[in-house]
Design goal:
single chain; 385 residues; mainly beta; five-stranded antiparallel beta sheet; 1 helix
Length: 385
C-alpha cells in the first residue's frame, strides 16, 4: 500500500471510529464506550424454576438477544424493579422473592452493561415466622412483599438499595395473597389504595387498604370483598376507577368499580368469561389481555372506558404455545413466559384492533423455564456520560 492510500484508509477508519463513539452507549455492543452510561437501553429479566435469573437485551421489533444467567432463587413469582425517590435515575435495583428461604434477594443493575450484582446486605429477611414471599411491588421508596402466611411485609428502600422492614409491618391479609397492587385513585387527589388477591380464600376475596404517605396499610371499610366462591383470584390490573382481577379457578375476569373510599363493587356483567386458568392480565391502548395458563391461550378484550365492562375483541383468542404465568406488556410488545418450552413468547399488539401477532423468531430460547418477568429501562442520555 502506498503512502497516499494508507492516509486515506486511516482517515476513513478514524471517521468510522468517531461516528461509533458519537452513537453513545444505548447498545451494549458499542465497544468504543465501554464505561458510558447506557442510553435508552432495555433488558427483560426473568426468574426461573431452576434457580437462575435471566437477563435478555430487548431489541424492539427484533425481539430478544441471547440471555445471560446468574444464580437466583427457584420458582420465584416475585420480581420488582425500583429506583428510590430522590435517588439517581441511573440507580436501578431488581428485587426477587425467595420462597424457599423466606428472604428477598436484591441486585444493583450496572449502568454500563445492565449486569446484575448482589446488593450489600442481601438477601433481606422477611421477618415473618413462617411462609415465604410471593409477588413484589415497588411504590415510591417502599417495597411490598406478599407473604404466603397471609400477610404483607413492607420495606423501606435506602439510596443504596438495601431493605429495612417498615415500622408497623407486616400487615394482615387474607389466605395466601399471591398478587398485590398499589392503586392510585382516579377520583380522589393524592390518594392511593392497595389491593391483595387472596388466592386461597374460600370466598375468592380481595383485601383492600388505604396507603398512607409513610407506606402504612390500613384496611378500608368493607374489606375483604368477595368475587366468587373458590375462584382463586390471581393477577390484578388497575385502570381508571376500575380494578380487574383474573379468577384462575373460575376461568373469568372480575371487574370492580373502586369508590372514593377504596370500596369494591362488581360492575354489571362481571365476572366476564375468559379461557381456562386465567392467571395474569395486561392492558394497552384500550385493550385487555388475559393469559389462560391451563389452555395456553391469550384472551383479548376491548375495555369500555366509562363502564369498565369487557367485550371480546375481533381476534379474541390467540394460541400462545405452552405459555403460563405472568404476562408483561412493554412498548407495543406482549411477553409471556413459556416454562414448558424453556422460552419466551412475544407478540406485537396492534394499537387499533388489539390483535396479537407472534413476533418473527418467537418463541425466543431462554435455556431455562421462565416464571416471572420484568423490564429494566435506562433513560435516554444525550450526550452519553
Amino acid at each position: 500500500m502506498d503512502k497516499s492510500s494508507l492516509l486515506i484508509c486511516l482517515g476513513v477508519c478514524s471517521a468510522l471510529a468517531l461516528s461509533l463513539a458519537m452513537i453513545g452507549c444505548g447498545s451494549t455492543q458499542n465497544q468504543n464506550c465501554l464505561n458510558c452510561t447506557l442510553s435508552a437501553a432495555q433488558f427483560l429479566v426473568a426468574t426461573t424454576t431452576s434457580g437462575q435469573i435471566l437477563r435478555f437485551p430487548i431489541k424492539g421489533a427484533v425481539g430478544l438477544g441471547a440471555p445471560i444467567s446468574i444464580p437466583g432463587p427457584a420458582n420465584s413469582i416475585g420480581l420488582a424493579v425500583g429506583t428510590p425517590s430522590g435517588g439517581s435515575i441511573f440507580q436501578i435495583f431488581v428485587y426477587v422473592s425467595d420462597p424457599q428461604n423466606n428472604v428477598i434477594d436484591g441486585f444493583l443493575v450496572s449502568r454500563t452493561d445492565g449486569s446484575l450484582s448482589a446488593l450489600a446486605g442481601a438477601p433481606f429477611p422477611m421477618g415473618t415466622a413462617s411462609g415465604g414471599p410471593a409477588s413484589l411491588t415497588v411504590f415510591g421508596s417502599i417495597l411490598y412483599a406478599a407473604s404466603t402466611d397471609s400477610s404483607i411485609v413492607a420495606f423501606s428502600i435506602a439510596p443504596s438499595g438495601s431493605l429495612t422492614i417498615l415500622s408497623g409491618s407486616p400487615f394482615a391479609a387474607g389466605a395466601m395473597p399471591l398478587q398485590i397492587l398499589p392503586f392510585p385513585s382516579a377520583s380522589v387527589p393524592n390518594t392511593t389504595f392497595f389491593f391483595a388477591a387472596d388466592f386461597a380464600d374460600a370466598s375468592g376475596s380481595i383485601s383492600g387498604y388505604s396507603l398512607s404517605q409513610s407506606g402504612l396499610l390500613t384496611p378500608v371499610p368493607g374489606s375483604p370483598f368477595q368475587t366468587l366462591s373458590g375462584s382463586g383470584p390471581a393477577g390484578m390490573l388497575g385502570a381508571g376507577n376500575f380494578l380487574d382481577v383474573a379468577l384462575e379457578h373460575a376461568n373469568a375476569i372480575a371487574v370492580f368499580s373502586v369508590s372514593s373510599t377504596g370500596g369494591l363493587s362488581q360492575i354489571p356483567g362481571s365476572p366476564f368469561p375468559a379461557g381456562h386458568g386465567t392467571s395474569s392480565l395486561a392492558a394497552a391502548s384500550g385493550f385487555l389481555y388475559a393469559l389462560n395458563s391451563s389452555d395456553h391461550t391469550i384472551s383479548v378484550f376491548t375495555i369500555d372506558p366509562l363502564a369498565g365492562s369487557l367485550a371480546p375483541a375481533p381476534a379474541s383468542t390467540v394460541t400462545a404455545g405452552t405459555a403460563s404465568g405472568q404476562l408483561l406488556y412493554n412498548n407495543g410488545m406482549l411477553y409471556a413466559p413459556d416454562p414448558t418450552a424453556n422460552a419466551i413468547q412475544i407478540f406485537s399488539a396492534n394499537p387499533m384492533t388489539g390483535a396479537l401477532t407472534p413476533l418473527m423468531g418467537s418463541p425466543f430460547v431462554a435455556g431455562a423455564a421462565p416464571v416471572a418477568l420484568a423490564v429494566v429501562s435506562f433513560p435516554a442520555v444525550d450526550p452519553p456520560k
